[in-house]
Design brief:
Elements: H1 2-31, H2 37-81, E1 88-91, E2 94-103, E3 106-115, E4 123-129, H3 140-146, E5 151-154, E6 169-171, E7 174-177, E8 184-189, E9 193-197, E10 199-206, E11 209-213, E12 215-216, E13 227-230, E14 244-250, E15 253-258, E16 268-274, H4 275-282, E17 301-307, E18 313-318, E19 322-325, E20 328-329, E21 347-353, E22 358-363, H5 375-384, E23 387-392, E24 401-403, E25 406-407, E26 421-427
């Protein structure tokens, strides 16, 4: 189709160029008295007709392509979810459907949102935070309104008391929290989607020395970890571990050292870790300025990367475990340290197909009409929906799906609990309004 579009555009350009040439030739001949004004008007009319016809043909051609793409998607939807399933159009390129499946004779109520980015490139899939700091919780409807989101599901795991996300979260290319246990994560790039287990590759550099950073804005897992806390964490850094120290950095400069919590600078961060490691790193006794003249080694530099180092990544949201990988069922909950969540529960999952369709799913649980799904059952469902890659998100009481300002599933806690973040659908440059009826 792309080749045809190029050919059509080229034809259009040829006509425009010929029209310009014809106009100038006409003017030249008219100057010599070879053409009358009526002849010139006739030529102009002919050119205009050709232009209008070509424009109309282009519009018709584009409309036919869109119709064909819509038909192909409809066939694809029917193959995945069933011939007799009702699909409710939310937006152009976005549908919602409900399914009732039985696994082991037990009922499952499933809500599905599918996005076809090819039909509507204005649809944006983004992680949405509950507030401007990590330690904040809110329900899905409130989060969605903040982001003008017409549809959303709950997002990553979080600390129940504070709302701080547990695992990687990147929004608009800014890494807010680092990954935990190399768990699965979903990335939204300029060209589509990625999914893989993600780890952190971050380092501090100062005076030709390097210090490995174990995580960013996350709870401490080992007493030997070196952690970074930025202003999105909050006003103050967390408590210092035993035998630890805190160093406050602003614009690459050390502004404070402390054995207790410190204020997090707006243009910097706080380093927290073992006193021996950090003091060795910031010690400048043996530093020879002449050796590093005209360099930035006198500034403390934080370099953050991830493994894998994805290209053109705009957003990342963590979850886990994997459900489907390269088209095959792949549930690695033990490797990702998810033993407590292996039973039947309400679930939220996301995935994408070979064609680039994006799928969000919630499964109700803890009720007679819908008993919830185990991880392998969820993996089978996501594979049956055609997912090439799929992963689990936070579930249980968190599992919630909203469409146009209304919750469409049946959360196990009435009204849905407050969560840390969501995965939301928005429309570029469109203000979303909600119908209160």
């Amino acid at each position: 189709m792309n080749v045809l579009l190029v050919e059509d555009s080229t034809t259009f350009k040829k006509i425009a160029v010929r029209s310009v040439i014809l106009f100038f030739v006409t003017v030249i001949f008219l100057g010599d008295g070879l053409y009358s004004s009526s002849s010139v008007n006739a030529i102009k009319a002919d050119v205009n007709t050709s232009y209008e016809q070509q424009h109309k043909n282009t519009q018709n051609y584009m409309a036919s392509i869109e119709q064909t793409a819509q038909k192909l998607w409809t066939i694809s939807l029917q193959n995945r979810y069933g011939q007799n399933v009702c699909f409710n159009k939310i937006k152009n390129g976005v549908i919602h459907t409900k399914l009732l499946k039985y696994i082991g004779g037990k009922p499952l109520k499933i809500n599905i949102i599918e996005v076809n980015p090819l039909l509507n490139p204005d649809i944006k899939i983004i992680p949405a935070m509950a507030g401007d700091k990590l330690a904040k919780k809110s329900n899905i409807l409130n989060i969605s309104k903040q982001y003008n989101s017409f549809a959303a599901v709950n997002g990553s795991y979080f600390k129940p008391k504070t709302g701080v996300p547990l695992g990687i979260l990147m929004i608009d290319k800014q890494l807010l929290t680092g990954p935990l246990y190399n768990r699965a994560a979903f990335a939204i790039t300029d060209d589509g989607f990625k999914m893989d287990r993600v780890s952190l590759n971050a380092n501090l550099y100062y005076m030709n020395k390097q210090l490995k950073v174990d995580n960013i804005n996350q709870p401490r897992t080992l007493c030997t970890d070196v952690l970074i806390y930025t202003e999105i964490w909050g006003e103050l850094s967390p408590a210092t571990p035993k035998y630890g120290i805190q160093v406050s950095i602003s614009n690459g400069e050390i502004i404070k050292k402390s054995n207790s919590s410190v204020e997090i600078p707006k243009n910097g961060f706080v380093i927290i870790g073992p006193k021996s490691k950090i003091e060795e790193f910031i010690n400048n006794k043996n530093y020879d300025k002449k050796s590093f003249k005209n360099t930035n080694y006198e500034k403390i530099i934080l370099d953050i990367k991830t493994k894998p180092q994805w290209e053109n990544v705009n957003h990342i949201i963590g979850g886990g475990p994997f459900l489907v990988k390269e088209g095959n069922i792949y549930v690695d909950y033990i490797e990702e340290k998810f033993k407590p969540i292996a039973g039947r529960n309400p679930r939220t999952a996301i995935g994408f197909t070979k064609e680039g369709y994006f799928i969000m799913v919630t499964i109700d649980g803890r009720e007679e009409k819908s008993v919830g799904a185990g991880l392998y059952e969820l993996a089978k469902i996501m594979k049956s929906f055609g997912c090439e890659y799929a992963m689990n998100l936070d579930g249980g009481s968190s599992s919630t799906m909203q469409i146009n300002g209304k919750i469409v599933n049946n959360p196990s806690t009435k009204g849905a609990i407050a969560v840390s973040n969501a995965l939301a659908l928005t429309v570029s440059q469109e203000k979303i309004t909600y119908n209160d009826n």
